[in-house]
Specification:
Dihydrodipicolinate Reductase, domain 2; 2 domains; 11 strands; alpha/beta; 9 helices; DapB_C; diaminopimelate biosynthesis
């Protein structure tokens, strides 16, 4: 028993060696800055076509150099990295957006063999809101007209964001989506617009701007009354700190599929 406790204590003192896929993206660069300042982590490998580790094959050859993989790439890249991590028995944290239902089904299957943590949003505040919406989704959905508005930086590709899709699924109680899009791309005089259908239960407005990093607002309306809940992120450091906390959490977990809500709030 004493030796087991000593081993556990020693393990806690070890640096967690990480590999980052998507290291030259905006989020990847901020992850490198954040993790480089944290003495409990060691960034060992970067997966990028312009770097030494250019592919999953290179990562496989160097699999003994890292303990877990952080993935902020593309749906195709994520699936390749999940397959790789299954082969080398390493945990993976997924922050990639735009994953399809088919992608998710495969990820669920692979989580039988390795720990996988996936999140639409790594901020503590948004995970707290996910929990709140889950607790009160039935009464909110039955009592109010709901509108979800999101604004993101101009380079974000997916319309709407994974966070908005998550909120909508929660509030619609995981039924088939009723969303209709009021989408704008406001950058350098480029725009995309589709009108809202006001007869729909949950309305969604998605905007891209060079002035905003990440903002989500949910408005609950009924006669003579409105409730507004807004979440704003002004620096990607918020997400990076959430990823770091997730690393500490997932590294000692058994095989399975986990969500960032469990990291921040427990089950």
């Amino acid at each position: 028993m004493f030796l087991k406790k000593m081993k556990k204590f020693t393990d806690l003192q070890k640096k967690i060696r990480i590999a980052i896929a998507g290291s030259f993206g905006r989020m990847g660069k901020d992850l490198i800055k954040t993790f480089s300042k944290e003495p409990r982590f060691s960034i060992e490998l970067f997966l990028n076509k312009d770097f030494k580790i250019k592919s999953q094959i290179d990562l496989l050859k160097n699999s003994d150099q890292f303990d877990l993989l952080i993935d902020f790439t593309s749906p195709i890249g994520t699936m390749q990295n999940v397959v790789l991590c299954k082969e080398i028995k390493k945990p993976i944290i997924i922050g990639t957006t735009g994953l399809s239902q088919r992608n998710i089904r495969y990820i669920v299957q692979f989580s039988r063999y390795i720990p996988i943590l996936i999140s639409e949003n790594f901020s503590f505040g948004m995970n707290l809101l996910f929990k709140f919406f889950q607790e009160y989704s039935e009464i909110l959905n039955n009592s109010y007209q709901i509108k979800l508005t999101e604004t993101h930086h101009k380079n974000k590709r997916d319309f709407p964001s994974g966070t908005s899709i998550k909120i909508e699924k929660i509030l619609s109680r995981k039924k088939e989506s009723e969303r209709n899009f009021d989408s704008f791309f406001s950058s350098q005089k480029k725009s995309l617009h589709q009108p809202l259908d006001k007869n729909k239960k949950i309305l969604l407005s998605s905007t891209r701007s060079h002035l905003t990093l990440s903002e989500h607002e949910v408005t609950f309306s009924r006669k003579y009354e409105k409730i507004k809940i807004r979440h704003i992120v002004q620096n990607r450091k918020v997400f990076c700190e959430g990823v770091m906390r997730s690393c500490f959490w997932i590294i000692r977990k058994k095989n399975g599929l986990y969500h960032s809500q469990e990291v921040f709030l427990g089950k």
